Amino acid sequence: MSEFEAAWARLQTDAARLQTQHLRQLFASDPGRVAALSFEGPGMLLDLSREKLDAAALATLLDLAECAKVAARRDAAFAGAPINSTENRAVLHMALRGGATPPEGADVAGTLSRFLDYAETVRAGPITDVINIGIGGSDLGPVMVTRALAPDHDGPRLHFVSNVDGAHLADTVQHLDPATTLVIIASKTFTTLETMTNARSARDWLAQAGDPGPRMAAVSTNLSGTAEFGIAPERVFGFWDWVGGRYSVWSAIGLPVALAVGADAFRAFLAGAAAMDAHFREAPLVENLPVLLALAGLFRRNGMGWPTVALIPYDQRLERFPAYVQQLDMESNGKRVGRDGQRLAGATGPVIWGEPGTNSQHSFFQLLHQGTDVIPAEFIAARSPRAADPHHHALLMANCLAQAQALAFGRTEAEVRDAMAAAGKSAEEIDRLAPHRTFPGDRPSTTLLLDRLDPAGLGGLVALYEHKVMVQGIIWGVNSYDQWGVELGKELASALIPALTGTGALPEGTDPATAAMAARLTEKDLT
Ligand code: F6P
Prior knowledge:
527 residues; alpha/beta
């Protein structure tokens, strides 16, 4: 048995031991638990004390990271090795924020200055509204960051159109003036069906106010595509194939952010991420936030067998953060074969989902507290409110702490009975209601407390999750930087378009379920 296999086997032993110990016991048996499982990083505190971990399990996880050569593979990534092996590409989005050296010939600083200067020109007027047309990484990063930095937003109003559903564009332009609206077409490939369809429709809409050219810009690696579409080169901002779509908010894909918050705040966002890059590269694994966050997730997934994690920001401005991390994590590590193409024996990326607290407390938290499945949660909060009422913030934080507390410690039936008796309830009522009012607890969570959700704090947070994904991908042995799983659906949709638009037939051999639904969809008007 190799050392790596031995560490995986120990992980199972650790998990079996911890399955039988309630978090209450883990806290009771170790007064130093909170200190031992709390870690400081740039601008944030990571509290793993409510995870089902102990010192022995953490040691096993760190062994696993050593055996998987996390540090060497991380260093290879930062040095520009082609770690995206199926596409033979480097993974160097860190170079866009000064966290790594860019490949030779890539004018990262010049491109950054160019799109930031352009943003400042647009911010000076007369543009009042900007529509970013993009999808996936060409949408989720800009929309998430723009909302998160609302207090810094002093530029034109920002709108985001992603879905090929015409309602998205139609509803967005409904109250906009094409004469004072700038449309950015953001697409790494400049071939994505949704984006190109929306781009053509948006161009038609802009044409109502005269030549649309001056009110269109593009961000892409496909410069022949942008030229063919008719975007003037001075409004085209490029990036590079070593920047993955879901890692591209640091590139000119971040142009909408720069338009909203300005060049200085955008540079602060980059600097915050670079500080996390430095921490990731330099801190020993045992104090390294992305590594520890990754290991806690790996233990939940591979040790305890929990297939999902709820990401709950206690910050309304991080409303789109769960959706952002969903793409980042699930498109990166939703893989079933290893880097060598062999089928993997164990589980990889979990299902990531979530909504901000406190809203989610009033929707799905019931199941988290009393449902039959254990759903681990990651809570994200900021210590100091920005441009928000401190009283509201205190209530928000009280709720965040209370949820983590309730999940971990629960309320036993004996405690429920005592409380009901003290409140004067009858024995009959206590018997009837006590089971319903009991909380099992022992439900794990991580809490990540940022100092502030400002541009630098947000940059650090996003980089933390990027690096967490890298570490997990290394240990699982997958290529986190391709996304072949989205291709089949794209191909099949293209083949169905002629039949659904009435310009052709269904492809030969179309399965009966698809054929029946296509026939139903193309039946004459049903109304
Ligand atoms: O969904 C697949 C994907 O390639 C994502 O990885 C990417 O972020 C998105 O489509 C958009 O791609 P593009 O920027 O090339 O339009």
